[in-house]
Structures are given as C-alpha cells and as structure tokens.
C-alpha cells in the first residue's frame, strides 16, 4: 500500500513557530476545504507522540479542518504515551516503527499517511518506505521564532515533482516522488 509523508512548513523549513497560531494563521478557506476533503478519504494516519498530542488538542478545541480527523484511523508510535488513547480510532504501537510500517504497507487495504511527526517521517524516508512526499508551504519565514526544523538530519533524497497547486493566501502544495540517494546527484547538462 502507498505511504505518503505529509508536512506543513514555513518557507524556511520550520514545522512550527513560537507564538504563531496553527498554520501560521494563513489557512484560507480553499486550503481548509482541501484538507477536510482529503482528511475524510480512506487512509490511515501514522504519527508520533508529539503530533498525536498536538493534533488531538486541535481536534478537542474544534479547530476548523482538524475535527474531521476523529473518524480517521490513527496509528501512534510511542514509548511514552499510555493506553487507553483518548482520541477516537487511535491505536498505540510501542515497537519499531519502520518494521511496523513495512508490515502495514504489505498488509493494509488503506493508504498510509504520516502527519507531521518529524522523526517518524525521517526514519520512514531513510528506510526507503515513502512513495510520496507532500508538503504544504505557507508563505511566511519564521527564522527568529521558528521551531522544529523539518529537514535537519534527513537522508539525501531526489524529488520528482508530480503535482503542484497554489491555494488562497499563497500556500503552495507540492507533491513529489522521493528517491533515496547514496551519493549526491551528478551535475546536469550544461553545468560548469
């Protein structure tokens, strides 16, 4: 089954920023409509403990566009969270996430999507398990207040663009097919 690694990001590669609201306050109706439509499709969300806590908090406060995630099956990879999980349709996995996702890709009848979860996504990309890499880039730079740099310590990847879309308020949705690299790409034609 297909695995999509999914992020939201500031232009400078941060997943969050100190003092800023969710989506940096730039989540226009077109983006939220896309998010809601795609959050209700038949897939399973994969997330780590921090993302689980954050997203459950958003859902509990009825943040627009997130409350629909309650009906989506969620698998939470954590050694720190204890059962029972309070967010509906959530399952806790304490074992090795890469091994568990490898097995899910083999046996699941639903597409798998990560949701944030930087270290989980990093491990899945490094293991070559991701079929798509999707990022919604919000038009803001949070260099001073930015928290959680997304790409630090990530493996080298070649990304083939398969889809791009611009939403209201300038948010870019970029979808790539990732390929794990053992070495840097050779120079292209015409490069010096």
UniProtKB/TrEMBL annotation:
Residues 3-173 form the Bacterial bifunctional deaminase-reductase C-terminal domain. InterPro entries: DHFR-like_dom_sf, RibDG_C, Riboflavin_Biosynth_HTPR. It comes from the Bacteria. Pfam families: RibD_C. GO terms for biological process: riboflavin biosynthetic process. One of its GO terms (molecular function) is 5-amino-6-(5-phosphoribosylamino)uracil reductase activity. PANTHER family: BIFUNCTIONAL DEAMINASE-REDUCTASE DOMAIN PROTEIN, DIHYDROFOLATE REDUCTASE FAMILY PROTEIN (AFU_ORTHOLOGUE AFUA_8G06820). This is Bacterial bifunctional deaminase-reductase C-terminal domain-containing protein.
């Amino acid at each position: 089954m297909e695995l999509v690694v999914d992020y939201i990001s500031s232009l400078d590669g941060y997943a969050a920023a100190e003092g800023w609201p969710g989506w940096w306050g730039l989540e226009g109706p077109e983006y939220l409509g896309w998010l809601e439509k795609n959050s209700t499709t038949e897939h399973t969300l994969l997330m780590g403990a921090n993302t689980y806590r954050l997203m459950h908090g958003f859902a509990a406060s009825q943040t627009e566009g997130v409350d629909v995630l309650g009906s989506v099956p969620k698998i939470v990879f954590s050694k720190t969270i204890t059962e029972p999980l309070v967010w509906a349709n959530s399952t806790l996995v304490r074992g090795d996430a890469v091994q568990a996702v490898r097995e899910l890709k083999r046996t699941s009848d639903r597409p798998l999507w990560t949701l944030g979860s930087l270290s989980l996504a990093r491990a899945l990309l490094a293991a070559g398990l991701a079929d798509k890499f999707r990022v919604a880039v919000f038009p803001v730079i949070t260099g001073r207040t930015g928290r959680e740099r997304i790409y630090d310590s990530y493996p080298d990847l070649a990304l083939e663009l398969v889809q791009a879309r611009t939403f209201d308020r300038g948010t870019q949705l970029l979808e790539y097919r990732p390929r794990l690299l053992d070495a840097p790409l050779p120079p292209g034609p015409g490069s010096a």
